[in-house]
């Protein structure tokens, strides 16, 4: 469609130039604004036709605005979560459920994921062992990408390895098992089994 002059379908004389516009709509008692919607404007009759691919991209923007307002992951964010574990859309759909084409629909914005699905996706980013278990049940071997190096790690160890990388921890706010154990070993309890007497000493009246 690009590079070729488009003739206006309304007056059949004017030339169409691409334009972007914003729209506001009500959702759950809030007014949401969607920017960057695409369309065309006729230089002769002023008609503003919107073509099919523009409608599709616009719809995805509406859906993301809704999802943001409802505290759900957007299409791009769902895609990032899936890519984090190096899954195809088909694999993700088999692991998480929701139907054969669930993830392509979520990512395109054709369908908005349920709150339950949203929470499950987030849980899997934070806790790789949850994904490992679901993948195992679905009979899928996950070859997660190490986000620090871009290196696809050995499938068996990959899920745990991916969880331990700095970038993952930072982006998902994950405390790794290693960090947890380190923290445990350095915070030696002050007085072993006498913790209870410590507690009671707080209440002691001098
Ligand atoms: Zn026209």
Describe how the helices and strands are arranged.
Elements (H helix, E strand, L loop, with lengths): L5 E2 L7 E13 L2 E13 L9 H18 L5 H10 L4 H8 L5 H7 L6 H12 L1 H11 L16 H10 L1 H7 L4 H10 L8 H7 L5
Antiparallel strand pairs: 1-2, 2-3
Helix pairs in contact: 2-4, 5-6, 6-7
Bound molecules: zinc ion.
Word description of this protein:
- The structure is a single chain.
- With 206 residues, this protein is of the alpha+beta class.
- The protein is built from ten helices and three strands, in the order E-E-E-H-H-H-H-H-H-H-H-H-H.
- The chain has helices spanning 52-69, 75-84, 89-96, 102-108, 115-126, 128-138, 155-164, 166-172, 177-186, 195-201, and strands at residues 6-7, 15-27, 30-42.
- The longest helix has 18 residues, at 52-69.
- Mean pLDDT is 76; it is low at 146-166, 168-184 and 186-206.
- Bound molecules: zinc ion.
Structural class: alpha+beta
Mean pLDDT: 76
Strand content: 5-15%
Gyration radius, in Å: 26 Å
Overall spatial form: elongated
Quaternary class: single chain
List cofactors, ions and other ligands: zinc ion
Give start-end ranges of low-pLDDT stretches. Answer: 146-166, 168-184, 186-206
Largest sheet: 3 strands, antiparallel
Following the backbone from N to C, one meets helices and strands in this order, namely EEEHHHHHHHHHH
Q: For the largest beta sheet, what order do the strands appear in spatially?
A: 1-2-3
- The end-to-end distance, rounded to whole angstroms, is 85 Å
Record field, number of beta strands = 3
Number of helices: 10
Q: Which percent bin holds the helix content? A: 40-55%
